[in-house]
Amino acid sequence: MNALIGAGGGELRKYTSEAEHASGTTAKIANQLNNTDAAKLKRFQESIHVLGIEVGQKLLPTLTPLIKTATDVSMPLQKWTVVRNKPLLNLQRLRQL
Known about the structure:
By secondary structure, the chain is mostly helical. Helices cover 95% and strands 0% of the residues. The N and C termini lie far apart (91 Å).
């Protein structure tokens, strides 16, 4: 920057003009890259991800008690199934002998 100031106002104006032109070119390139199918798919995936987070944050407080209740109900059923299947397992073992 000091070199531009030392070169004079004309050089500084020239540099500024070229930098402004380059920023317009950069914006055009960025727009072109963002309009590809891959970029559109990526934006869609990100929006679905955000939607999932939003829905989860809203539903989780409601679903947590339901999940706990379902777990509490399923545990005795699981134990009952294990107890009921023990005779069958023993019978299968006897058949293998």
